[in-house]
Design a protein that fits this description.
The complex is a heterodimer of chains A (446) and B (132).
Chain A: H1 11-21, H2 51-63, E1 72-73, H3 86-92, H4 110-127, E2 131-132, H5 139-154, E3 158-162, H6 167-177, E4 183-187, E5 206-212, H7 223-229, E6 236-241, E7 260-264, E8 280-284, E9 297-301, E10 307-311, H8 318-321, H9 334-372, E11 386-390, H10 395-404, E12 407-408, E13 411-412, E14 423-427, H11 434-445
Parallel strand pairs in A: 1-12, 3-4, 3-5, 5-6, 6-7
Antiparallel strand pairs in A: 2-8, 7-8, 9-10, 11-14, 13-14
Helix pairs in contact in A: 3-9, 4-9, 5-6, 9-11
Chain B: E1 14-15, E2 20-25, E3 28-33, H1 35-41, E4 44-48, E5 55-56, E6 61-67, E7 71-75, E8 80-85, H2 95-98, E9 107-111, H3 123-131
Antiparallel strand pairs in B: 1-2, 2-3, 3-9, 4-6, 5-8, 6-7, 8-9
Classes of the chains: A alpha/beta (446), B alpha+beta (132).
């Protein structure tokens, strides 16, 4: 291996360390690993590049992708193109926040802890919940943790999950549950694009019911009705989301009676960056706080009465409780959470509502334009910034033609829902202009 | 933390090595944690208890007790059905620190086999285990 200048240890350092532990070479460190468990041949990775070669390589990779603003991307499905205010990017780039590991010690990390505390506060307000954690990895892991939490609280063995919930979130949930004796039951969706609640009547042994609103088909679920259906049952109501901006316009999970709210926060100031990193938002009612996974920052006072922030309820986490911990995750996506709190604070309550309205109005414009052009909108329920369109058979060719014109006409749903072949999930955010939408409709009509 | 000589180990209860006490009261067995246990844990901030009607075996976990330092499991000193839980601990968990053998009680069990009480330690034997 060529020694690169960013590696901190000199050959002298390494020799000194080897001498101290009493071995001749790095290989000696692995001597206790049985021979047949060790890889014999070298790793198949290319040789190192110069910085300019590497830049060139990355540019070529980037050039092979269809991204905005070069492309007009009418695709959301869990990852949304929103403008990130310059103030957010600037603040987030401050070196105090950019560390490889989030420092949680209160003695040295009041700034980081306070920022997380503010994130929790704004998240609680946005979702209408009493307490939020410091964040999870992404929407999918938040959902899985929420269902495990519902199981812990209810002491039941089964959960029900809407088929209109993000298909990839459901796959992560299945992965979490696969090695356990816990059961996942699927609730189908109805012709109007919302979850069919009728199977719930006969399920007495449920620990939790999860729906997404707006759901993967773009439709707002009637969450308050689900709450009614669950009355007198032990099951917790878990409301998931992939687009929290919707709560600037529609009732939030708390207002609809959610016990746990969980989902993806990428919308809030985090670029799409090829699918990650993401932000798992997680909040619940205060009475369930001890069953909540992840880190929690609290506010307190020091010996002199000054305000301070500390991790709280850590006694339930993995480094103390081992296998009995509430979750095997005892970290958070701190930098992404900071982006989200900076974004929310920059927009403010009024700005957030205005931006939500703008997303709604624009997507309604495209909805009408496509409908007027003769395309079918199969689901009747209200939507936010995403909706499903049914195009005629053979639209795949049109889709490819649009791609050549740098327009991505939504997400083909057939891969996720075989019954929705020729259905496309369209998304319109504030970054799409009226001219973009008119051009799209014109091209589709050709 | 206090010296063992400062802690109370009354002789009207029996003791488990996992630091629960059990007292026969009429036809049920009342259970809590010992003065030693509460002293070791420090300020108790939360007690998680089972539901009335749960049936648990001897040595099975019936709940958890959380202090500012740690969360610990609580184990059944005898097998049986939970017939009552001390719901007042929800708002006043400090009762476990203040009066571990009184208001700080946790559950009442209808014992499957009352003779299991005989397997538990008396105060002298329990104190012996603490002295190691």
């Amino acid at each position: 291996m060529t020694l690169m200048r960013y590696l901190p240890h000199t050959p002298e350092d390494i020799a000194a360390m080897l001498k101290t532990v009493g071995i001749d070479s790095l290989e000696g460190l692995f001597a206790h690993i049985p021979e047949d468990c060790r890889r014999k041949e070298a790793l198949n990775i290319p040789d190192h590049l110069t910085e300019w070669e590497l830049n060139d390589h990355m540019d070529t990779l980037a050039g092979s992708m269809a991204v905005s603003p070069d492309y007009k991307v009418f695709m959301g499905a869990g990852s949304y193109e929103h403008h990130v205010p310059a103030a957010v990017s600037f603040l987030l780039g401050r070196s105090e926040f950019v560390t490889a590991y989030t420092p949680y010690q209160p003695e040295v990390s009041q700034g980081t802890l306070q920022a997380i505390y503010e994130y929790q506060t704004l998240t609680s307000r946005l979702l209408g919940m009493e307490v939020a954690n410091a964040s999870q990895y992404d929407g999918a892991s938040s959902l899985a943790e929420a269902m495990l939490m519902a199981i812990r609280i209810s002491r039941k063995k089964a959960v029900a999950v809407s088929r209109a919930l993000h298909p990839l979130y459901r796959r992560v949930l299945e992965t979490y549950f696969e090695p356990t004796d816990l059961e996942i039951r699927e609730l189908p969706y109805l012709g109007d694009g919302t979850t069919d609640l009728s199977p719930l009547q006969d399920m007495e042994d449920l620990g939790g019911v999860a729906v997404q609103s707006p759901n993967f088909l773009g439709c707002m679920e009637d969450v308050e009705r689900i709450k009614q259906v669950l009355q007198n049952k032990k099951a917790l109501l878990v409301v998931c989301f992939s687009e929290p901006l919707a709560y600037g316009l529609y009732k939030n999970p708390g207002e609809c009676g959610a016990d746990i709210a969980c989902g993806e926060g990428q919308s809030l100031g985090i670029p799409r960056t090829f699918g990650g990193p993401a932000l798992g938002m997680f909040a619940s009612k205060m009475k369930y706080v001890r069953n909540m996974p992840g880190r929690l920052v609290g506010q307190t006072v020091d010996l002199e009465g000054n305000r301070g922030h500390v991790l709280t309820l850590s006694t339930r986490e993995q480094h103390i409780r081992r296998e009995k911990a509430t979750s095997n995750i005892c970290t958070n996506h701190s930098l992404c959470a900071l982006a989200a709190v900076m974004y929310m604070a920059t927009l403010g309550g009024t700005g957030f509502k205005e931006l939500a309205r703008l997303n709604y109005d624009k997507s309604e414009y495209l909805k009408s334009a496509l409908s007027d052009a003769g395309f079918k909108l199969p689901f009747s329920r209200p939507t936010f910034n995403e909706f499903v369109v049914e195009f005629p058979a053979g639209f795949k060719k049109t889709y490819q033609r649009l791609l050549k014109k740098k327009m991505i006409a939504g997400l083909p749903l057939g891969d996720f829902y075989p019954e929705l072949n020729n259905h496309y999930l369209m998304c319109v955010t504030e970054t799409i202009t009226k001219a973009d939408m008119d051009a799209l409709v014109q091209e589709i009509k050709k | 933390m206090k010296e063992l000589s400062e802690l109370k180990f009354p002789d009207d209860v029996r003791y488990a090595e996992s630091h629960e006490w059990a007292r026969v009261e009429a036809d049920t067995v009342k259970v809590g944690i010992t003065d030693y246990a509460q002293d070791q844990l420090g300020d108790i901030v939360f007690v998680e208890l089972p539901e009335v009607g749960d049936t648990l075996g001897k040595g099975e976990e019936f709940g958890t007790v959380e202090s500012v330092k740690a969360v610990s499991e609580l184990y059944m000193p005898v097998a049986g059905e939970i017939v009552a839980v001390n719901a007042s601990l929800e708002d006043a968990p400090e009762k476990v620190n203040n009066t571990p053998y009184g208001d700080g009680w946790m559950i009442e069990i209808k014992a499957d086999n009352p003779s299991e009480m005989d397997d538990l330690l008396d105060n002298d034997a329990y104190l012996g285990t603490l002295k190691g």
